[in-house]
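Example for tutorial group B:
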């Protein structure tokens, strides 16, 4: 029997890789993790966590305004970008330390260098070679930008967390959740924001009612959303940027941020050389068990480009570790996974959109509610909430639930349990409402607005 330095070598110290390493070690495996940057991956270091902290900060200006109609006398308020970024960095440092403690507490070796696969059982880590019976790739993804003149003058979400100062005017290019979220953040913190998207509406892939409703709510808050707009080139002019659209129109701003997609961070890892198959975008091809074309090499998370969400990567990592090292085989179910967009207002969704359900040839009952939440009946703010249920007409199973409005991500988490279990509309109806809440609308929708 060949002898290896490790039973499992994990490349990538994000949430998925760390979970897999800890679970495998708990099953008795000798494990190492290689990470060339900081532990925590995209979510902790340059994604979900710092983004939501900035999103919280961006909400305060509305809270100060709303407080007045609730009887509060609010003095002059000012915002300091440097304070926010410094406090955000402290929290990221804390989380990085926690991840290190989790690995050391699990007796997992941490190698803080870049790892390259030499052969199916050998990895070069910062110039030192180690061997492993099994290799797990969990390297995540990285922002990508189009190759247009002047693109080097732009930033991505990575750099947005470390800007030396808040831009007075910023153009955000993209229509996905990252673009929408940062538009809300910068707008809420006081910047003038223009969002450009080359498609017909933001949030492609989400339910159409959600897309149109959110676009209208964003516009109310001052974000200038420009669809069917594409950038041809970027030029520097003094201390400002001139952005020329393909239509010939020129926009001036202090900063331009691209959020037009991410690609798996698999370049230069030696993958194809050892037989691992990649898709055109660099994503690692895996089967339902996360196995690549090389039997002892598996991959999880965003580098596989299946369902790019941190909790999904974590469950994929645990499924892998339990199956390979714990004699408890199971697979991650990628269907009916809830997700959120921390836009202003936020979005929460689980299950099928109306369009996707119709593509399956289903007859549907659609339930919707569009209302002003109780808070804003006094605040005076013109902000509304949308809730929608997509129901299979024959079985009455709720196929999808969609919400735009305050607390949508928190509410959709609970709704996701029912949708995942295959609850029917009648079972939703049987739940007694919690009043007065926005969430009660999900169990008080009685008449379908459309049936087909």
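The residue assignment follows.
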């Amino acid at each position: 029997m060949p002898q290896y330095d490790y039973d499992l070598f994990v490349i990538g110290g994000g949430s998925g890789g760390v979970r897999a390493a800890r679970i495998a070690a708990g099953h008795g495996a000798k494990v190492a993790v290689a990470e060339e940057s900081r532990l925590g991956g995209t979510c902790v270091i340059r994604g979900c966590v710092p983004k939501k902290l900035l999103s919280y900060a961006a909400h305060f200006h509305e809270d100060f305004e709303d407080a007045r109609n609730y009887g509060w006398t609010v003095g002059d308020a000012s915002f300091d970008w440097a304070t926010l970024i410094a406090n955000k960095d402290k929290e990221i440092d804390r989380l990085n330390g926690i991840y290190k403690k989790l690995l050391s507490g699990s007796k997992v070796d941490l190698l803080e260098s870049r790892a390259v696969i030499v052969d199916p059982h050998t990895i070069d880590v910062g110039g030192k070679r180690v061997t492993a019976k099994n290799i797990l790739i969990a390297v995540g993804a990285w922002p990508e930008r189009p190759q247009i003149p002047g693109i080097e003058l732009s930033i991505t979400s990575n750099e947005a967390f470390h800007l030396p100062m808040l831009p007075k005017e910023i153009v955000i290019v993209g229509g996905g959740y990252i673009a929408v979220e940062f538009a809300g953040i910068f707008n809420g913190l006081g910047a003038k924001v223009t969002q450009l998207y080359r498609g017909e509406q933001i949030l492609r892939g989400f339910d159409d009612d959600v897309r149109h409703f959110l676009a209208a709510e964003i516009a109310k808050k001052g974000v200038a959303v420009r669809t069917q707009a594409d950038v041809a080139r970027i030029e520097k002019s003094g201390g400002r940027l001139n952005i020329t659209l393909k239509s010939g129109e020129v926009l001036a701003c202090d900063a331009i941020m691209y959020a037009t997609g991410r690609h798996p961070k698999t370049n230069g890892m030696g993958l194809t050389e050892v037989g691992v198959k990649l898709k055109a975008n660099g994503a690692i091809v895996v089967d339902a068990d996360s196995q690549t074309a090389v039997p002892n090499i598996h991959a999880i998370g965003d580098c596989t480009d299946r369902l790019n969400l941190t909790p999904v990567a974590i469950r994929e990592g645990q499924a892998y570790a339990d199956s390979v090292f714990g004699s408890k085989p199971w697979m991650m179910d990628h269907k009916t996974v809830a997700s959120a967009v921390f836009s202003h207002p936020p979005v929460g969704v689980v299950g099928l959109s109306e369009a996707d359900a119709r593509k399956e040839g289903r007859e549907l009952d659609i339930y919707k509610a569009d209302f002003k939440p109780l808070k804003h009946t006094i605040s005076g703010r013109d902000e509304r909430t949308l809730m929608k249920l997509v129901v299979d007409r024959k079985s009455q199973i709720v196929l999808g639930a969609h919400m735009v409005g305050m607390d949508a991500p928190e509410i959709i988490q609970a709704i996701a349990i029912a949708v995942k279990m295959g609850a029917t509309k009648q079972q939703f109806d049987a739940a007694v409402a919690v009043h007065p809440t926005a969430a009660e609308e999900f169990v008080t929708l009685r008449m379908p607005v459309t049936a087909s």
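The longest strand covers residues 128-137. Compare this with the pattern of hydrophobic and polar residues in the output above.
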